[in-house]
Design goal:
Phosphorylase Kinase, domain 1; globular; transferase; transferase activity; Aminoglycoside_PTrfase; Kinase-like_dom_sf
Length: 310
């Protein structure tokens, strides 16, 4: 079995084949499999089997897989408000050079989770403290630089500006991390990563970006989204539910810049293959370069061929 297509990419058909191979190994049905996500990971729900299969789409993500397993095990021991690994499965499962993790399936239940749920979940999550094993440090600049190094359709002036931005922001990130040692950060805290269970319990998932750093990072996406996506009201509700207004934090300018750097650079690997994303990337970059806080951005996921990038 092979999981790569003719272009060397991990395509949907190949990931589906890999998922069915794993289901056969586990001796569980996969006739009702549903593809939930196809980004850095291919995520499939298998409701009849009561599991979710999550397959990495790159060998460079293997370290993350092992980190996620350790975190999920620790979260379960602490009875944290998180999704759970499937019991009695040796994790991870290798599949054609990639790694898969198996999770308990959560039947989505109405009403959908809210930003108030996010605030309450994050308070519990941050109160867990740091786990008794090392986590990577929060480093949005390193992530941005890695995306820029892989760019194919980035103009020289754009690359120069973004690299200079990284250089300018890096020492501020390092200083903020130094003051925030030992703090648990989810790393991608948004309502889309929440699930409400049939027992009316809200849990959070996706621990790939979980790290150590300033806990305030997890409160930044909502207020930045209000400004850039012209959304109103959610930040006030999040601040009330969590009990803290991150926009009043002394480090808010650095936190906001770090989030915007991520929101701009997320598109860089897709510039050559997704024209809509390329146009939106340049809208975002132009507004940052000119200091225009009123320019409206469009979520990448709303654009055709966006490939699930936010």
């Amino acid at each position: 079995m092979t999981t790569t297509d003719a272009n060397g990419r991990y395509a949907e058909v190949a990931m589906t084949e890999a998922m069915r191979h794993i289901a056969d190994q586990l001796d569980v049905p996969s006739h009702d499999a549903q593809l939930l996500r196809l980004t850095n990971n291919a995520v499939f729900a298998l409701p009849a089997a009561g599991i979710v299969v999550r397959i990495t789409r790159s060998t460079v993500l293997h370290d993350r897989v092992h980190k996620v397993i350790r975190l999920a095990t620790w979260f379960a021991e602490r009875d944290a408000p998180t999704i759970r690994l499937a019991p009695q499965v040796n994790q991870p499962i290798p599949v054609d050079g990639l790694l898969a993790t198996i999770w308990q399936y959560v039947q989505p239940t109405e009403p959908a989770p809210t930003v108030e749920d996010l605030g309450q979940i994050l308070r519990r999550f941050h109160n867990l403290g740091a786990p008794p094993f090392p986590l990577p440090a929060w480093d949005p600049v390193a992530d941005a630089r890695s995306r820029l190094a892989d760019a194919e359709a980035l103009r020289d002036d754009e690359a120069d500006y973004l690299l200079t931005w990284c250089d300018r922001l890096a020492p501020r990130i390092a200083a903020l991390n130094e003051r925030s040692k030992g703090k648990l950060v989810h790393g991608d805290a948004h309502v889309g990563n929440l699930l409400r269970t049939p027992a009316e319990v809200v849990v959070i998932g996706d621990f790939d970006p979980t790290c150590e750093g300033p806990w305030q990072v997890d409160l930044v996406a909502v207020p930045v989204g209000e400004t850039r996506f012209s959304r109103r009201g959610a930040h006030a509700r999040l601040a009330h539910a969590y009990g803290y207004d991150v926009t009043q934090d002394p480090d808010w300018p650095t936190l906001r810049e770090a989030r915007e750097l991520k929101m701009v650079c997320a598109a860089v690997p897709l510039l050559a293959s997704a024209p809509g994303v390329a146009r939106e990337f340049r809208t975002r970059l132009r507004s940052v370069r000119t200091g225009d806080q009123h320019a409206r951005w469009t979520p990448f996921a709303d654009l055709q061929q966006a490939g699930g990038t936010r």
